[in-house]
Amino acid sequence: DAVDTAPAIVVGSGYGGAVAALRLGQAGIRTLVLEMGRLWNTPGPDGQVFCSTRAPDRRSMWFRTRTEAPLAAFLWLDVVNRAIGRYPGVLDRVHFDAMSVYVGRGVGGGSLVNGGMAVAPQPAYFGVQFPTVDTAEMYATYFPRARSMLGVNTVDPAWFESTDGYRFARTSRKAAANAGLRTTFVPNVYDFGYMRREAAGTVTRSALAGEVIYGNNHGKRTLDKTYLASALGTGNVTINTLERVREIRRSADGSYLLAADRIDPAGAVVGSRQYSCTYLFLGAGSLGTTELLLHARETGALPALDESVGTGWGTNGNVMPGRANHLWDTVGADESTIPVLGIDDRANTANPVFAEIAPLPMGLEHWISLYLAITGNPERASFTYDRATDSARLGWSAAQSAVSVRMAKNLFDRINAANATIYRYDLFGSAGKAFADDFTYHPLGGCVLGRSTDAYGRVKGYSRLYVTDGSLVPGSIGVNPFLTITALAERTMTRVLAEDTAS
Ligand code: FAD
Q: Where is the Glucose-methanol-choline oxidoreductase C-terminal domain (predicted)?
């Protein structure tokens, strides 16, 4: 078989992969990015690149015949999910025994589907999670660099107070304040100037048209518009799409060998390609990178990988509750999909919670306050390699999710008591759950910085092999993770380009 050779290969084009690609390209190193999803730049029959959340089609989800939206129901009716055709759609939901994980698929990874919230953790918490990293340097250099590269901006507070799109956030803020809880504005990569023009009716609506988890057609600064556009602009970076890396080996001369499956739009594997490189960067995300490394260790391809590979995984304490407001506390029919406020109870050391006030844009008044609570759940799980199915199994249990629920309930019980309100039991499936605790948007860990790697993401046991993505974060960061992932990747690339690639 022919082998394509590149000095550097990056697996995955999310945050970790995009930072690696740009910095390698700028350093003059020819780099190939392998991404299993498609490039989202071509309009479909409706003239839009991404389909709408309200009328999802095959573009919505990764090889499904039915959508699997986080909110399965409303008033117990299965009104949210739709039959769709199988296609490499942009949002995937990966199912494990007691936990499913939402991830983005495509050039730009999670940036294509996420809420755009760009939040730095509290320095003290960052220091606890990353004892081998210089916290002061992170906050002086790498967080600012990540913010500026990602195009982070903040909603204008005066406009926030007046616009109908954030009535839902103001209503939830009031309910929190009644319980003595503080809210804080959350920065975002969605262009708030564009959103104001949406509200004014002068541009095509995106955040104000319900777009987010199946992609935004306008307004959001996704990685394909920031890091990856700059990476391609160096002239040294190529991105191959619809290629899923299946295994990694090392040849006798120390170079890395990769086997990738080529996927066609119907999901069939239509061929395999072999690659080789000197420097290998893994940016396939917490699930993708951990699975590749676990597979490599357990099949004997990279036997010297550390025992800790596959451990230290967590959900960032994610859990979602909904509350029913009083009839006079309206949320508005025209919710922006981009969250801008968080209830900040992280100082409560016995029960730390950062609860994003989440939109539920249904195009009608529903009086529901929805939240994405990031709890300080200390539970962690490990992946094991299942030889029979040649796949990774996740050991996370329902009891571990119950810890997140207890912490979130502690906070939302206070809010309900102070407002004489109740939970909604109809939003998360037929079991009548008040808390969605069986999925996460924030998979973290599996190849933890300083344990499976050195303090800079260099994988233990092998030279010129690096991890730059969310698998480095030990299961929790207390806030939404992509800003931290980006900043850590910037730090790694600065060090690696200075020390490892100089000839
Ligand atoms: P990813 O962004 O997941 O990128 C990994 C890429 O690698 C993907 O494109 C994937 O297709 C590709 N890949 C995987 N395996 C392979 C393989 N074997 N071969 C080839 N390619 C492969 N975070 C925030 O900070 N703020 C938010 O507001 C926010 N909202 C979210 C909302 C949703 C609905 C979701 C799903 C996530 C959200 N997140 C948010 C989380 C955030 O998107 C992730 O933490 C982030 O994308 C992780 O970055 P990463 O570099 O680790 O990997």
A: 439-489
